[in-house]
């Protein structure tokens, strides 16, 4: 793995998946504006695996929300596949998020009453790329993560590792340009966590772009590049 704190990188062919330009984010608390991110510049190229690390309160989760188009910046730009988030309406932003970004969360966030297959297929109910057979694609993804024999199981009938595999398959259903993983092994034992990281590693080898928030240096070793945050800025020291 090659570690770097540089905020720019020679891109592969085509536009970067993510560009953050002079990004700032603050939240209004009482009578005060509390700055969380300050003048962040970061480019993430096609096919990169980037780990974001930093102490509690450094702004990692806020940065993930910015990259995932879950929130808008106070200043600066968030550009996803060449589209400036600030220029998009809320419906346009929701469509971009639904089609171009796949999310994997620490707590899995599966729908309890749905089966594995239904959970994987769920994102296509709101957004689906043209010409895609969602049910067929969902079955292929369930097989890819090794859960074909659990296709009709509900989350409560599966282990944490199996649930996270479902979440990874769900993140891939719309063939997104970017996979965002927020502490994806945080609720798993070390062996199961390694198995989940091997799935991410395989996806990366196949050309997927992955951004992962983690506090674990051992997980960060799977990445091409590590970005360190400290007090809302990229730490270049």
Automatic annotation (TrEMBL):
<dbReference type="InterPro" id="IPR027417">
    <property type="entry name" value="P-loop_NTPase"/>
</dbReference>
<dbReference type="InterPro" id="IPR017911">
    <property type="entry name" value="MacB-like_ATP-bd"/>
</dbReference>
<protein>
    <submittedName>
        <fullName>ABC transporter ATP-binding protein</fullName>
    </submittedName>
</protein>
<dbReference type="InterPro" id="IPR003439">
    <property type="entry name" value="ABC_transporter-like_ATP-bd"/>
</dbReference>
<dbReference type="GO" id="GO:0005524">
    <property type="term" value="F:ATP binding"/>
</dbReference>
<dbReference type="GO" id="GO:0098796">
    <property type="term" value="C:membrane protein complex"/>
</dbReference>
<feature type="domain" description="ABC transporter">
    <location>
        <begin position="18"/>
        <end position="237"/>
    </location>
</feature>
<dbReference type="InterPro" id="IPR017871">
    <property type="entry name" value="ABC_transporter-like_CS"/>
</dbReference>
<dbReference type="GO" id="GO:0016887">
    <property type="term" value="F:ATP hydrolysis activity"/>
</dbReference>
<keyword id="KW-0547">Nucleotide-binding</keyword>
<dbReference type="InterPro" id="IPR003593">
    <property type="entry name" value="AAA+_ATPase"/>
</dbReference>
<keyword id="KW-0067">ATP-binding</keyword>
<dbReference type="Pfam" id="PF00005">
    <property type="entry name" value="ABC_tran"/>
</dbReference>
<dbReference type="GO" id="GO:0005886">
    <property type="term" value="C:plasma membrane"/>
</dbReference>
<dbReference type="GO" id="GO:0022857">
    <property type="term" value="F:transmembrane transporter activity"/>
</dbReference>
<keyword id="KW-0813">Transport</keyword>
<dbReference type="InterPro" id="IPR015854">
    <property type="entry name" value="ABC_transpr_LolD-like"/>
</dbReference>
